[in-house]
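Reviewer 2 asked us to include a model.

Predict the structure of this chain.
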Amino acid sequence: EKKGKKEGKEDDKKVKKEPKVIIRRSRWGLSDQTRKELAATYEKVAGVGAMVYGSVPAKLLRLVLAAYLVYAVRPYAKEFNEYCRRLAEGMSNPSIVYKAQLNNGQTIILNDYLDAYFWLRDKTPKDARVMAWWDYGYQ
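Predicted model (structure tokens):
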């Protein structure tokens, strides 16, 4: 009798394992079948796009557009290059003495950095080390 009961339970399990139709949905609400169809359509379109992109007229058009862009941008590139050179020259020759003008129009010479260097030279030993932090943009 015990074996019969076990066999009966196994038969019940077999009956319970009937396949169910489940429609799974992605986060956009598309079923698996719809996603497969969209993927197949995308592959077809991508193949056509690759054919068009690789065609001789398309390559010629891209070449003409690239040449036009180089021609159109050239004056701006020259101007930019000249600007960069002027800026680099200005930054490569830092000055420790400045000429300034006061509100009343009087011209003065600012030599604070030069005075500081002379003080260091005169008041510290020859082998002295100076540690300082100067923010970027200053001397």
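The helical segments are 2-16, 32-53, 56-92, 112-123. The radius of gyration is 40 Å. We have added this to the supplementary material.
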